[in-house]
Amino acid sequence: MIHPASVSHLLAVRRRRTIAPQGRPRAAVLLALYGPDADPRLLYTVRSFQVEHHKGEISFPGGAIDPGDTTVEDAALREAFEEIGLAQQDVSVLGQLDDIVTISNFVVTPVVGRLARHPYDFTLHTREVARLLEVPLSHLLDPASVQSQALGPEKRIFPRFTFGADVIWGATARITHDFLDMLRQQLAPAVIPATAPAHDHSNR
């Protein structure tokens, strides 16, 4: 069992890596834990083909931090409401993961939260989101679900997750891998399977 209180504690006691923007735009995404504590799901969005960038790709709800956002949590929750109709009052924020830099040169802060109820009546902004993807943590923690993928001219190794016909890759896979690594390293070995081989987490 992966209880929200345990995840909140793990996020609170770890030393989080922050990255100075240095002129780069900032963004925030929401890793929403959803469903039963015995095997919660991680909520992803499948982007529509009407968006300007990353058509059809799998991502977390989120986007650029606006001047009106007081905190990165505010930004992540605002974007989640705009994209999938997830009300801010229905999310308990558990903490933040390490910042990453994406290939598009955004500094992204991942925010972890727990939804208050299940099932939830999501309302998709269909111009941006084609559908939701709910992946059980037990599946993501199974080493068979993750492979290594060489990307870019330098052939750096990054994680790549599969769930049926869906493929989670790029920054979303890196953030997922970071979250799972935190769970593996600090929760009971009997609960969490052995980790997959380490991946290159340099900027992408």
Mind explaining what this structure looks like?
The chain has 204 residues and is of the alpha+beta class. The chain has a domain at 4-137: Nucleoside Triphosphate Pyrophosphohydrolase (Alpha-Beta Complex). It is 22% helix and 31% strand. The strands form two sheets. Strands 1, 2, 3, 4, 5, 6, 7 and 8 form an eight-stranded mixed beta sheet that branches. The protein has a three-stranded antiparallel beta sheet with strand order 9-10-11. The longest helix is centred in the C-terminal third of the chain and has 17 residues, at 170-186. The radius of gyration is 16 Å and the shape is globular.
How would you sum up this structure in a few lines?
The protein has helices at 4-13, 72-84, 137-141, 170-186, and strands at 26-34, 41-47, 58-59, 62-64, 91-96, 100-101, 107-115, 129-136, 146-151, 156-163, 166-168.
